[in-house]
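Design request, tokens follow.
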């Protein structure tokens, strides 16, 4: 039942989830503006030379308990600054509210090392594999002009356009958070547990599908279901691997190629679900 307290809680949570991303997004846009307006050729050359180790660095940064890195990575990929493998490595290793929940739960902290190691390992492996496949195909991405047709570049400098793009994407993210928080609160954990095929061998596939929801609330729900015994560790891991926080929403908003976005989402889902299934069979 919708009450003012219910609506206020959803609004407040959506606002907090959005504001957490502010420093990451602003720094990301500031860097992209600097690369485009000040030293685009040198920046592009350096990033391409470092690209071979991109998945390794991306997976390491992604495991920091904050989904801001996935949002920044989505912007970097849309601008052509990082490879697709690096983006997937960040997405797969992203860890947000799952870690604090496990830390505060009795005995939950024991699962943090295997969780992080697994997510980083699958992120590195998938990232390098994707980059290798795309390299063999000869696929290349050029730098994308972030300010194309938006008019923010007319004033000159990098601070104003960085602030403009940050505010623009934050408004979009707030709307997404608002809708998804409301949907998850309305459904409740019991209904979500039934959707996740409790007790079924196919649970990793269902959990990975829920993980694709571009919101930190999805990782919270998956972790709580695992701690409550409604979700196996392998299924929880599958869902947390596919959950890149708000990064997927930023990717869909900023990256022009719908085909690339579709391929990234499908790859993210399949890698997460199959990894969870393989782990479930081993355990």
């Amino acid at each position: 039942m919708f009450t003012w307290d219910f609506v206020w809680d959803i609004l407040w949570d959506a606002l907090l989830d959005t504001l957490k991303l502010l420093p990451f997004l602003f720094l990301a846009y500031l860097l992209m503006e600097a690369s485009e307006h000040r030293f685009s050729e040198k920046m592009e050359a350096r990033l391409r030379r470092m690209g071979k180790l991109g998945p390794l660095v991306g997976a390491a940064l992604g495991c920091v308990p904050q989904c801001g890195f996935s949002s920044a990575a989505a912007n970097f990929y849309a601008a052509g600054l990082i490879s697709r493998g690096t983006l997937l490595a960040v997405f797969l290793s992203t860890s947000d509210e799952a870690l604090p929940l496990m830390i505060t739960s009795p005995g939950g902290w024991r699962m943090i090392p295997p969780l992080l190691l697994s997510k980083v390992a699958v992120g590195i492996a998938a990232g390098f594999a994707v980059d290798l496949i795309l390299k063999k195909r000869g696929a290349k991405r050029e730098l994308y002009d972030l300010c194309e047709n938006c008019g923010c570049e007319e004033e000159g400098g990098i601070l104003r356009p960085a602030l403009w793009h940050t505010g623009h994407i934050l408004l979009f993210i707030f709307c997404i958070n608002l809708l998804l928080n409301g949907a998850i609160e309305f459904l409740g954990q019991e209904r979500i547990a039934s959707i996740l095929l409790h007790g079924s061998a196919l649970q990793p596939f269902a959990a990975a599908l829920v993980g694709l929801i571009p919101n930190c609330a999805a990782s919270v729900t998956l972790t709580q279901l695992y701690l409550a015994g409604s979700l196996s560790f392998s299924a929880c891991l599958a869902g947390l691997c596919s959950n890149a926080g708000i990064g997927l929403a930023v990717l869909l908003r900023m990256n022009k190629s719908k085909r690339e976005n579709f391929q990234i989402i499908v790859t993210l889902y399949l890698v997460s679900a199959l990894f969870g299934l393989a782990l479930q069979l081993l355990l």
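Comment from the thread starter after seeing the answer: thanks! The CA atoms of residues 89 and 126 lie 7 Å apart.
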